[in-house]
Amino acid sequence: MAAQRSDTLIGDDVVRSLGQQGQSSQVLVQVKDGQVTLSGDVPSTAAKHQVEQLVAGIDGVRGVHNHLNVDTGTRSFGERGQAVRDNPDGRDDAQMGDIDLGKDG
């Protein structure tokens, strides 16, 4: 009987595998006792099923709970399958000094 893989190793493999797939950048992953829970947005039903099948095939995954939403772009302001971000250019304004939460006006 093969040894059970740690949740950390499984999670690393899931994230790496999803990162290699272009339509799953908005997928959040949680792993507990080999059970993987997926949440977030994907652009199509086909992508939702593709992500689930990909994750189910990873060594050590004992089950997949697919809570992915299909975002066709009608429910958000972003591109199809892409969440709207408050910092689309990736800048961290707090580190850049633009936001100072310690001052009273």
UniProtKB/TrEMBL annotation:
Composition skew (Basic and acidic residues), residue ranges: 82-105
Domain BON: 6-72
Any one Pfam family match given in the protein's UniProt record, by short name: BON
Domain of life, source organism: Bacteria
Gene3D superfamilies documented for this protein: 3.30.1340.30
Record field: transmembrane: none
InterPro entries: BON_dom (IPR007055)
Region called Disordered, residue ranges: 70-105
Identification of the protein by name: BON domain-containing protein
